[in-house]
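Fold it.
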Amino acid sequence: MDTKLRSKFLILITWFLLSDVTIAAEIVVSGLKSSPLDLLRADAELGDNPVIGRLACPAFTRLNLAIKGSEGLIARNVELNKSQLLWKFELRTGIYWWSGKKLLPSEVVNFVEENLENAITNQGLSQWKIPAFKITANEKYVEVLWESKPEFGPFVLNGIPVHRKSDKYAPLGFECVGLYSLHSSKNGLTMKPTSGYPQRRKKIELIDDLTLKSGMRFSLGNSTGGNPWSRLSDEKANCDGTILQPDFSLIMWNLKSANIRKAEIRKSLTMLTPRGALLRSGTGDLGELVTSIIPRQHPGYNSSLKIRPHDTKLAMKAFDDVGIKRVTSDGYRRDTSSKIFEIRLVKEDDSAGIIEKVLIDAFAAVGIRLKLVLKGDRNDTEDGIITGVSVDWPQVNFLADLHSKGNGLFGLNDSSTNMDQLLLDYSKSLTFEKPDFSLLEKIHGKIYSAEPFTVIMQHSQCINVTNEYKSKLRVVDFINPDWFKRLSN
């Protein structure tokens, strides 16, 4: 089973602890752990990150789900003429590189020249023809003139920050235009205000050592250890606010396994999983039950799809209907060849957790034997893996992962599903001002019908702040890409 999703799609969920030691800094934030500087890539939609992206490496243009559309950022305004041959980007004035030097129109031209074709290739999975084009600029505008009408739109650079190569900011290898510059520090990451901007700003410390006290603390519930399922209390987490994250815990099924090749079997296994109980006992209700790995708060989430119920009787009937019956004295279900029906799942580590016990008990109750295999002992014949994913926010674009010309994960792209075309059409719509989120709803529906994974929950982050931030926190809209900027100002 191939569970290697591209880096921006798959990350294991990080769990945090808090305590009471003080650190001296102007704004100290714990729990918003970022990648090490040497792993950050400016061409990988870093600008969509609401913290280090928005403040240190803001995007040229961006998708803003608060308005359900795309807009300019460093490019103040974006115009598309009637023939769609001319893209016109109005430049925002008073923008500075981390070094304190003013951003020049010629440098924006260089940025567009260096990133446009790669962005088109990545966004279209090399399926779109790229006409010849010419880029010009004056003090106010950068213009892209196409030789023939492109099939994609001017927001194809969404999420990519204006950046250039620089050895000064090692180990990054680049610098951005932004309100802050990024630097490694003893405790994590330091964001230093960029010179040139008139407004005086506080330095921001993003700390990794969560034994240190902070003005803003982000956590994923009251788990008492590294394993998220070690928390057994049904008590709700005590939070000043919560942020629904594009992060999911799930069982990713191996569709090549004969055991679970049929969608009806996978759906039955989902119905056997007591996801509501796991949400309450594992996270203190910090999360939501969802029908797929499309975040519930996204406009492309198909709310007409119903959460599969925790229904043991319905699951048992489904197993009976496909010939996996409980007919022997040992209590196990057997297939038509009288072989015990056993589900083998890969787990990330050897630490005991509530999810394992709950799954073993839930499956055993209907006669299914569950065997858990350590990740290091896997042989790719297992039926699935218990893991976590974080999806591409805010676009939630699965083109590279699900399309047959990409990773082709889960085999969802046969001719009957039309999935490949839906994925391409949605990705293309994201390059225009008003994306067609109904296409993502259709993709959601097809994933839901195939049930390639059992989504246990979508996670929320708990945020606790000191008094100086409480009034701001009450009015922050977390779907707005400027939410952290407004909270920290």
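The CA atoms of residues 154 and 431 lie 6 Å apart.
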